[in-house]
Structures are given as C-alpha cells and as structure tokens.
Specification:
The protein has about 280 residues and is mostly helical. The protein has ten helices and two strands; from the N terminus they run H-H-H-H-H-H-E-E-H-H-H-H. The chain has helices at about 1-20, 25-45, 50-70, 85-110, 120-140, 145-170, 185-200, 205-210, 215-240, 255-275; strands at about 175, 180-185. A two-stranded antiparallel ribbon has the order 1-2. The radius of gyration is 18 Å and the shape is globular. The protein starts with a helix and ends with a helix. The model has no long low-confidence stretch (mean pLDDT about 90).
Length: about 280
C-alpha cells in the first residue's frame, strides 16, 4: 500500500506541477475543468446515485464550466486576457454564496449532521462546492503559479502537521461522530505550522498583511480552521454514504474529492479576498 501511495503521489505531483507551470491559460482551464468533472462524478457517489447519473453529473460540470468561461472569457484568462472587473463579476456570482455556505451553513450542518437525502439539494450543494473551487484554481493562477502553489501549501501543511501532531499528542477528539481520528491537539498543531509558515513568507504577502502581524495571525488561524471544516464536511458525507473514499481513481489515495476536500473550503475564500483587494 505504501509503495502504491508513493508511486501515485509522484505521478500526481508531476502532472500537477507540469500543468501549473507550463500550460497556457487555456490549457490550465481544461486541466482544472477535468478535475471538476471527476469531482462531480465522485460527488454523485456521496449522493448514492447510480453509475449513469454520476456520469451525467461529470458532464454537467464540464458544461457549466464551459458556459461560465464563454459568458466571461476574460474572467478565466481567455480571449483578450485576464480582466479583474470580469473576474470580479464571475467571482462574486460564485464566491459570495460559497463564503456564506462555508462560514454559516456548514458549521450548522456538521452539528446537525444533515444527510444528502434530497437529490436537488444534493446537486446544488455539490455545485456550490465544485464550481467556486474550479474558478478559484483558474483565477488564482493569474497571480502566478508560485502564488497559487504557496496558497495550496497552507492547506497541505495544515493536514500534514495535524496528522503528526495528532499521532504524537492527540488525546481529545475533535469530532468523534464524524472523523474519530481527528483531535484538537492535531488541529492546533496544524495551526501552529501554518502560522509559522505564514510569518516565514510574510515579506512576500500583500502590504496589508505583511505590515499588520495581528491581522496576518488572525487570517492564518481562520484559514486553518476553514480547511478543517472542509475536511470534516467531506468526512461526514462519506460516513453517511458508507464510503471510505470518494472513489478509487487515485490508487492508494482514494479520489479527487479526498485530495481537495480542504481546498474546496479555503480556495474560494482566498480568491474572494484576493479580488476584493483590487476593488
């Protein structure tokens, strides 16, 4: 199993880094749209849909991504190039509902442990997860591949540090009815690692954060907290659907949703703040 995980991880990173640094804007858009399609197909499993319906969800995701790109090509770097006003028009349409969902609805959802029992509700929820994440991956790359990589590294670091801190110090369960393996000590360890990472790179951050350490500290803690919420949310849905992984498309790692669960909650919020910084 370990050998499989390592081999898959090597291929994943090679594919991702190659796409991130070498593809054109159009190529990156296609690459991220493919990720969104697989995530939508996996979302169908969480909704307990049949194989044909799951395929239809993947096709729907591609169609919606293509439609949004056609409506606002400058928002995704197509046509005459990236335009911040266009990016904001499309971003506001997706990021604001996503922010309300993650900051207001999901904490209540986790507490009540609502099931995805209604097909329409499940479909809308899936679109609210996948489409804003798709757009954030597309738009944040306009800040530079390294910038997007640095943002994603926050989530990866939080997960890795939480895992090791939890194994070493974990005693108090964070959400035993949702994800028994997660502990408060692990979450705190992830937060400490993210704060250290953020202050280490503070000279590369926008002035509003670099020159205000308290604001930067709050932002980093908030980002870590939201990433944990995203992780717990998918864990809840998998538990309710009786699934260990969202799929098996990534040998040893599960599915795409398993790899981007924390990114679905963090990237849209980061992209929203990024766009607001230009207004």
């Amino acid at each position: 199993m370990l050998r499989t995980r390592v081999i898959t991880a090597v291929f994943l990173f090679a594919a991702f880094f190659s796409a991130l640094f070498y593809l054109s804007s159009a190529g990156w858009l296609v690459f991220v749209t493919a990720i969104a399609a697989i995530a939508a197909w996996e979302w169908g499993a969480l909704m307990r849909l049949a194989a044909v319906a799951r395929m239809a969800l993947g096709v729907l995701a591609v169609a919606l991504c293509a439609l949004l790109s056609a409506v606002e090509p400058a928002a995704v770097g197509l046509g005459t190039g990236f335009s911040q006003p266009a990016a904001w028009r499309l971003g506001a349409f997706l990021y604001l509902p996503a922010a309300a969902f993650w900051l207001l609805a999901v904490p209540i959802w986790l507490h009540q442990r609502w099931p995805l029992s209604n097909a329409v509700f499940g479909l809308l929820t899936g679109l609210l997860l996948i489409l804003p994440t798709w757009l954030a991956l597309v738009q944040l790359r306009q800040a530079g591949p390294l910038a997007l990589l640095a943002i994603m590294a926050v989530v990866w670091l939080a997960d890795i540090a939480a895992y090791f801190a939890g194994r070493r110090f974990g005693k108090h369960k964070l959400a035993p009815n949702i994800s028994p393996g997660k502990t408060w000590e692990g979450a705190i360890g992830g937060g400490v690692a993210v704060v250290a990472y953020g202050f280490l790179l503070s000279s590369k951050l926008p002035v509003v954060l670099a020159e205000k350490p308290l604001l930067l500290l709050v932002a980093l803690i908030a980002l870590t907290s939201i990433s944990v919420v995203g992780d717990l949310f998918e864990s809840l849905l998998k538990r309710q659907a009786g699934l260990k992984d969202s799929s098996k498309v990534l040998p040893g790692h599960g599915g795409v949703l398993d790899r981007i669960d924390s990114l679905t909650s963090t990237l849209p919020l980061v992209a929203l703040v990024w766009l607001l910084s230009f207004s």
